[in-house]
Amino acid sequence: DQEVNEYSTSLAIRVSGFDVPRPIKTFEDSGFSVELMKAISKQGYEKPTPIQCQALPIVLSGRDIIGIAKTGSGKTAAFVLPMIVHIMDQPELQKEEGPIGVICAPTRELAHQIFVEAKKFSKSHGIRVSAVYGGMSKLDQYKELKAGCEIVVATPGRLIDMIRKKAFTMLRATYLVLDEADRMFDLGFEPQIRSIVGQIRPDRQTLLFSATMPRKVEKLAREILTDPVRVTVGEIG
Ligand code: ADP
Ligand code: MG
C-alpha cells in the first residue's frame, strides 16, 4: 500500500517477490524477546538500518531472502537476530545434534567478524557459537565441535573439512546463511558451497547476501532458494 511504498522509498529499499512482509520501523516491531532487546541496546543499536527494516520481518516470517546491500549496511544483524529467534523456537530436546544455524563467509576475517557479532547476541540465550576457519588447530576445532554447538560460522573449505572428519552432522541444520556470496564465488568456493548446501535438508530456510549479483550467483540463488524475497538497498544490484 501507499504508506509502505513511501516508507520503503525513503529507505531506498526495493523488493520483489510475493506476499512481502511490511518493513519495520523499530526493533520492537520485530517482536523480539526482552533478552534479545537487551542485547541489541547493549550494542548501541537504537533503530534498524534500512536493510534490517526490510530483511528482519521477511526472515522472521520464515521466508528465504536475497539481500543485496553494500558493505557497512548492517547485514550481519539482519541474519544473526532472526537466527537467534529461529534457534530459540526449536524444541528443547532433539534427537539430532550439530549446528542449527550455519553461516558461510568468504574469508577468515569476515567469518571472524560474524562470529564476534553472533556471540554477542547468543550469550544471554545459552546458544553456543563455533568458529570454523583457519587460525585454530584442526584438532582443537574438531574437539570443540564434537562438544556441540547451535551455530557455526565458517569458511567453506574448513567447513567441508570438518564435516568430512565427522566433527558434526548437518542433520539439525535448518537455517543457512551465505554471506558475501559474490566474493565466495570470486574466491572459487562455488563447488564447496554447492556441497554444503547439498548436505542440508531442503526444507531449511536459506538466506543469501551479496553486494552484487553476477549471473553465476543468480543461478545458484535460483537453484537453492525457495520463493525468495529479493531486497535491494541503495544504488547497487
Ligand atoms: P555489512 O555486513 O552490511 O557490511 P555489518 O553487519 O558489518 O555490515 O555492520 C556494519 C557496522 O554497523 C557494524 O559496526 C555494526 O555493529 C553496525 N550496526 C549494525 N546494525 C546497526 C544498527 N541497527 N544501529 C547501529 N549500528 C549498527
Ligand atoms: Mg557483512
Structural description of this entry:
This protein is α/β, with parallel strands linked by helices. It has a single domain, classed as P-loop containing nucleotide triphosphate hydrolases (Rossmann fold), CATH 3.40.50. Helices cover 43% and strands 15% of the residues. It is built from 10 helices and 8 strands. An 8-stranded mixed beta sheet has the order 1-8-2-7-6-3-5-4, sandwiched between helices. Helix 6 links the parallel strand 4 and strand 5. Helix 3 packs parallel to helix 4, helix 4 packs across helix 5 and helix 7 packs across helix 9. The longest helix has 15 residues. The model has no long low-confidence stretch (mean pLDDT 94). The structure holds adenosine-5'-diphosphate and magnesium ion (MG). Adenosine-5'-diphosphate (ADP) binds next to helix 4. This is RNA helicase. It comes from Solanum tuberosum. Belongs to the DEAD box helicase family.
Q: What does this entry show, briefly?
A:
The protein is an alpha/beta fold. The protein has helices at 2-10, 34-42, 50-60, 75-88, 108-122, 138-147, 156-164, 181-186, 190-198, 215-224, and strands at 13-16, 65-68, 101-104, 129-132, 151-154, 175-178, 205-210, 229-233. The chain has one domain (2-233): P-loop containing nucleotide triphosphate hydrolases (Rossmann fold), CATH 3.40.50.
